[in-house]
Design a protein that fits this description.
The chain is an all-alpha fold and 97 residues long. It has four helices and no strands. Pfam families: Hpt.
């Protein structure tokens, strides 16, 4: 494996480790009134990084929640198709570790 591929693999590993922690925060914060700003910050970062690291489905799912929150920052996220899709995609991508 070239040095560049090795570095990319290390970055992907750190991303997935961070994603596990972010998943827990998303689960908790999505149920708290007034916490959508925190959720928005997290999903925006996931949307940007995931695509660059080879997780296009995760990027698309996070982008959908990002756009939902841009449209309505007071939406109750649990149970929305966008949030459910994101959480399922996070689980799927974490299972690839």
């Amino acid at each position: 494996m070239s040095e560049q591929l090795s570095r990319l693999a290390a970055i992907r590993t750190r991303f997935l480790e961070r994603l596990e922690a972010q998943r827990l925060v998303l689960e908790r914060s999505s149920r708290l009134e007034g916490a959508n700003s925190e959720v928005h910050d997290i999903v925006h970062k996931i949307a940007g990084m995931a695509g660059s690291l080879g997780f296009p489905d995760l990027s698309a799912a996070a982008s959908a929640v990002d756009m939902l929150l841009v449209t309505d920052n007071t939406v109750n996220l649990p149970g929305t198709p966008q949030f459910d899709r994101l959480m399922k995609q996070i689980e799927a991508d974490l299972a690839t570790r």
